[in-house]
Amino acid sequence: MIFSNTPHPDTLKSLADVKLMPFWLDDPARPEPASGLTEYIKADLVVIGAGFTGLWTALTAKQADPARDVVLLEAGETGCGASGRNGGFVASSLTHSFQNGLNRWPKELRKLVELGHKNLEGIEETIKQFNIDCDFIRSGEINVANEEYQIEELREEAEHSAQYGEHIQFLDQQQMRAIANSPTYLAGIHDHSVAMVNPAQLAWGLRRACLEVGVRFFEGTQVIELEEKRDSVVIKTSYGQVESKKVALATNAFPPLLKHLSFYVVPVYDYVLMTEPLSIEQRAAIGWDGREGLSDNGNQFHYYRTSADGRILWGGFDAIYYRNNEVASHLENRPESFARLAEHFFQTFPQLMGLRFTHAWGGVIDTCSRYTAFWGKAYHGKVVYAMGYTGLGVGASRFGAQVMLDLLDDKTTERTELQMVKSKPFPFPPEPFRSPIVNFTRWSLNRADDNGGKRNLWLKILDALGLGFDS
Known about the structure:
Mean pLDDT: 95
Helix content: 25-40%
CATH topology of the domain at 31-138 and 193-265 and 368-428: FAD/NAD(P)-binding domain
Structural class: alpha+beta
Low-confidence stretches: none
CATH superfamily of the domain at 31-138 and 193-265 and 368-428: FAD/NAD(P)-binding domain
Shape: globular
CATH architecture of the domain at 31-138 and 193-265 and 368-428: 3-Layer(bba) Sandwich
Strand content: 15-25%
Distance between the termini: 18 Å
Oligomer: single chain
């Protein structure tokens, strides 16, 4: 199905009363922020950024060595960035998708699949250990074909991935529509190694867990500069400083403290809508009682899922890069993207026409050219970073944190020996070349979706070079 981008007047009415903030963060259970750092302190490990990567790093470090003095610094509040704005898909995949992993690391893909499954199990175990109430459900994700050419692609993926230890089931049209009823569905594949979660509640639960094990927490604390000393690094903030033996950078899409990292990551804005709770009649019209996550199989795709109170989250498709790597709060409101999302929603579920959206928001994704996280060291190994999750970091961030700690502690593990960990993505060119290249790539991907998946010469060149761009 080729989605129309011209909003119907009734579609626009559905957006009349939206609140411009993330639904997940609009929660009275949101914790009071910790105080900011206003003094000079010392630590064994400082983690910068209280999103999923930073939270998992701090918690894992403290659990491994309770005597280790761990400090976590956050410029805003816990989960205020991508961790509180995403769809809540907790995938086992560490490589963004099976096909992406197969294209890039075929020799170690079986190991990556195994580690990904163990990672998802570890997330669930931690949620149980600390009694984190975050609506964690192992419902799986279904990738939907709504164009004829996609059906065989999905069938082949289901068959091929089984050889590497994945648990993916092909669904024909009848089976697909029995799960969720949309006239656009032609087939699907159900990946059972995916969970759904309320991401903000998970972040807040990990925050509480960090505090319980003794992590020192400072929010509203913007890190300005890192200064290397002989045996330590001084982390300078607006009103205080920390001198630490080791530093873990978990700032993802936000402007990096190591300037060269801006060549490896493009901050891309993704936009999301949340509906009001569905009535009993509306729910009966679409089915979808298993609370599976759903996504399209196009280059520009939607992802969507249901919430605990019976709403539908609908996001994706647009992936907007703003010139000069701009990241700013005003970019979270993009009416044209919200209107396009609403139009596509009612094309997918026409039986829900009249449903209204209550929340609309945007969030920034740390996109890299290989779609998966990458790691590196700085300041003679005293600083390590992880970034580049490209929209699939809710699950992979825990693995990313484990790799960071391995690298900080100079440990050789099965994780650090992976080629995926040892290698870097291809860098993006600087401005003024970056904007036209990114935008032309997005245009080419859209053209491919409109032309039966046929990729133009530019996309074929990127494929040959092992590069890409994805929402």
